[in-house]
Request: fold
Amino acid sequence: MINKDNTAAMFSIDTPPDVRNQILTELNISHTTQTDRCLGLPIHIGRSKKKSFEYIKQKIWGRIQGWQERLLSKAGKEILIKAIAQAIPTFAMSCFDLTKGLCDELSSMIARYRWSQQDKTNKIHWIGWPKLTRSKNLGGLGFRDLHAFNMAMLARQGWRLLTMPDSLCAQVLQVKYYPDGNLLEAKPKARISYTWRSILKGLDLVKEGLIWRIGDGNNVNIWTDPCLPRGVTRRVFTPRRGFHFAESGGAD
Reply:
């Protein structure tokens, strides 16, 4: 069942106006442009990623400008930054790679507000932002590293595709991008959507922490698939078989 009130069509530049009108009339839907957004996310991601996600930067900047009028302590600023400023791009980060450059710009805006005075004058940043993003038990303040958080959100989407292959989203993406069903071997190709390209970056992060549990070995490539855990032990993990104990005390 399609909700036509929330359905729109977007056409290429070469589509004749009469064809556009005919399609919109037959389907009884509205027309949308590349600059429109759906559920708060951009419909089309162009070559300029900075331009596509400029609305996130403007939204955070607007919040910061409003906070500048308040007399807040450093602790008060910390709460606003963590609860609001760094939460604004979360939804977009779960679908798109915002690029490291944009994440650095957002972090720079937040850092300037963190050290600024009420008269909007800049103050010396006595501690670098990378140190402030450390957890408090490591001497930081627990602010988010936005780029690392972005990659973690995309890795989470990739993990969902791996663990829930029967979901509607996984089935649609599989038909279009990895018809052989091997998600971990999917490669970025030309003219793929920016959402899928972003998820592939998250999958690269997932692969770094994946290891194979050796069973019969039929599906494992001994030359390329990692099967040894990183850490103290370097032993291969195999499925444990259940033992049945008889009343006499012997194992079956």
